[in-house]
Write a structure and sequence with these properties.
The structure holds two protein chains of two kinds. In chain A, α2 (about 55-90) crosses α5, α8 (about 190-205) packs antiparallel against α11 (about 235-255) and α10 (about 220-230) runs antiparallel to α11 (about 235-255). The model of chain A is unreliable at about 260-265 (pLDDT under 50). The radius of gyration of chain A is 23 Å and the shape is globular. Chain A has helices at about 1-30, 55-90, 100-110, 115-125, 135-160, 160-170, 175-185, 190-205, 205-210, 220-230, 235-255. Chain A has eleven helices and no strands. By secondary structure, chain B is of the alpha+beta class. Chain B has a six-stranded mixed β-sheet, sandwiched between helices. Chain B has a five-stranded antiparallel β-sheet with strand order 11-10-9-12-19. Chain B has a three-stranded antiparallel β-sheet with strand order 13-18-14, with no helix packed on it. In chain B, β5, α5 (about 150-165) and β6 form a beta-alpha-beta unit. The two termini of chain B are about 30 Å apart. Classes of the chains: A mainly alpha, B alpha+beta. Chain B: Keywords: ATP-binding, Cell membrane, Membrane, Nucleotide-binding, Translocase, Transport.
Chain lengths: ~270, ~350
């Protein structure tokens, strides 16, 4: 009976796994097919021969966007995470009068949809002379990322013992030195979460990118859109482009994911 | 408000213990000295300097926390040197002091470990070392031993005494454990509900408590209380009549007797009471004998607060309304549960309290 229940449970999970992996499967095999064997009717069939040809064809069109996106997502996520860490620390461990009012205010930014602020943001950036290049786009992503990174770090630091902070105070450390010497060293797990999140959202953003940058600074999402949105759509090339475009976010997840481990606070307290 | 009325002067080099049941404000008071808690009224002085408005980092005190509060990502060496680093002590000086203190505390071989790789006792010593290295004007210790197991706690307690003798640094030590308070403190300040009750040497606290609360809090087992009346030169409760020398007039009182204030009757002329032991606790060389008296129990806020609800549930098996006494007898004296026992009360060691105010008479 017990084994039956377990088997049933695994079976159900297996079905769900297949369901969720369907698009990934379609993406992968289509990207590896040669143009002749691509058709909607046989889209689920495995290719006759695996070919990397598609990647070689699309890469020249993607390279520029790829570089732009990297130049955009790396600083946007690093700076946003760092500022979020500072915010989170002050809002949870070095509280000031009104902190309980300021935090929801920052958080509120998370619930504003992109589309709602598109026009005022564009006008603001325009009058600040920040439209066209990557710098403006980076600033927008940093600011737009602050609510979520602040939330991540605030929750994380809230779990840090108050006594450790107080020990640093009594030992003579002010706010900045407590932040840098005591809080930051235990924050890698929060940085992993914040960086993965920020990198992914900056890398995947299309709307801000297409709006704020001129042609030579288009991020990869815009380039991808141009390939996929061409007159005749070579499925295999579109899929290969999509696959290439998603490699960095996957990589970031794999590299940072191992910092998700717990136990960085081990030994600070009695337990 | 956690601390309401405290006027306390700690002498230079003194070991002062703040003690009281949980919620009495002792930790808050300590944190006020450290600058971690805001002072709404009154002043705090360290030395001759008014530090009330100063930040913790500006006060030259070191603190040992109950949870130890070590910096998790720093080695023991860096944990201990952190305070010196923050105060910009030259590197060579830092190293020398860390090594010195590590030597005293037996931490030499642990200097490159992180707190996570240490045992509870070792972490406790690192926390202590971090404070000592600083050579501050005062140590503030917030229940530093309460997370150690019983045996280690006792040995650390004597280590602390030794350490204080050697360093002579002014120390303010918070604990809820009156045994720790009595054994460590040169003077002990007893707090209740944020009000200082009495601050004196352990001997004076034990023998001359100013009120019912201090009397009930200090001493283990606790002092026994019974509602009694002073009439015609004797104090009366139940069948007992004890002549007293002091003139207290004619009035109801709360009578206090230490567990050592009673003994087996041996014909030395002390007044006696007949009792029937309900519980006998054998501790090897001595016994605690618990019985109830045919007299009303004392159940005031002060006595309840003093026992911290730990023993407040002892009414479960014994009658609720009768006074309950614990007496400490040597183990070679024959006592058994239910067998009648004649006890003599030492008339020199009686404590009298006003039933309304709880003040000692």
């Amino acid at each position: 009976m017990k084994t039956l229940v377990r088997t049933g449970r695994y079976l159900a999970l297996l079905v769900l796994v297949c369901f969720f992996l369907m698009p990934v499967y379609a993406l992968l095999i289509t990207a590896l097919k040669d143009p002749a064997s691509v058709s909607v009717v046989r889209m689920w069939e495995l290719p006759q021969s695996f070919s990397m040809e598609n990647f070689r064809i699309v890469w020249p069109d993607l390279r520029e966007g790829f570089v732009n996106s990297a130049l955009l997502a790396v600083p946007a996520s690093l700076v946003s995470a760092m500022l979020g860490a500072a915010n989170g620390f002050v809002l949870s461990k070095w509280r000031f009068p009104g902190a309980d009012f300021v935090f929801p205010l920052i958080l509120f930014g998370m619930f504003i949809p992109y589309q709602a602020i598109l026009i005022p943001m564009y006008r603001t950036m325009q009058s600040a002379n920040l439209v066209g290049g990557l710098d403006g786009l980076i600033i927008v992503h940093i600011i737009y990322g602050l609510p979520i990174t602040t939330l991540i770090f605030r929750s994380y630091f809230a779990g840090l013992s108050d006594e450790v902070i107080e020990a640093a105070k009594v030992d003579g450390a002010g706010m900045l030195r407590t932040f840098f010497h005591v809080a930051l060293p235990i924050a890698p797990p929060a940085f992993a979460v914040a960086l993965i999140w920020q990198f992914t959202s900056a890398w995947n953003d299309f709307l801000f990118g297409v709006l704020l940058t001129s042609r030579e600074f288009w991020p990869i999402t815009v380039a991808l859109n141009n390939i996929a949105g061409g007159q005749t759509v070579p499925f295999n090339q579109a899929m290969a482009s999509a696959l290439l475009a998603s490699v960095p976010t996957l990589l970031v997840y794999v590299l940072l994911g191992r910092f998700f481990m717990r136990g960085l606070m081990a030994g600070a307290l009695k337990g | 408000m956690a601390v309401r009325d405290v006027d306390l002067t700690v002498e230079p080099g003194e070991f002062m213990v703040l003690v009281g049941p949980s919620g009495c404000g002792k930790s808050t008071l300590l944190r006020m000295i450290a600058g971690l808690e805001e002072v709404t009224e009154g002043r705090v002085f360290i030395g001759d300097k008014d530090v009330t408005e100063e930040l913790p980092q500006q006060r030259d005190v070191a603190m040992v926390f109950q949870s130890y509060a070590l910096y998790p990502r720093m080695t023991v060496r860096r944990n201990m040197a952190f305070g010196l680093r923050m105060r910009r002590t030259p590197r060579a000086d830092r190293e020398r002091r860390v090594h010195e203190v590590a030597g005293v505390l037996g931490l030499d071989h642990l200097l490159d470990r992180r707190p996570g790789a240490l045992s509870g006792g070792q972490r406790q010593r690192v926390a202590m070392g971090r404070a000592i290295v600083r050579e501050p004007q005062a140590f503030l210790m917030d229940e530093p031993l309460s997370n150690l197991d019983a045996k280690l706690r006792v040995s650390m307690r004597s280590q602390l005494s030794l350490l204080h003798q050697r360093l002579g640094t002014t120390t303010v030590y918070v604990t809820h454990d009156q045994v720790e308070a009595m054994t460590l403190g040169k003077r002990v300040a007893v707090l209740r509900d944020g009000v200082l009750q009495q601050c004196d040497t352990p001997q004076t606290l034990f023998h001359k408590p100013v009120n019912l609360f201090v009397a009930a809090f200090i001493g283990s087992p606790s002092m026994n209380f019974v509602r009694a009346a002073v009439e015609g030169g004797e104090v009366r409760f139940g069948e007992a009549r004890i002549p007293i020398k002091r003139d207290l007039g004619e009035r109801p009182v709360i009578l206090g007797v230490r567990p050592t204030g009673l003994a087996l009757a041996n014909g030395n002329g002390w007044p006696t009471v007949e009792v029937r032991p309900a519980i006998v606790e054998d501790l090897g060389d001595e016994r605690f004998v618990i019985f109830d008296l045919d007299a009303p129990r004392v159940d005031t806020e002060a006595t309840r607060a003093a026992v911290d609800a730990e023993t407040a549930d002892d009414a479960l098996l014994l009658p609720e309304d009768r006074a309950r006494f614990t007496v400490r007898l040597s183990a070679d004296q024959p006592v058994s549960v239910g067998e009648p026992l004649t006890l003599a009360i030492n008339p020199e060691r009686l404590y009298f309290f006003d039933p309304d105010s709880g003040a000692a008479l």
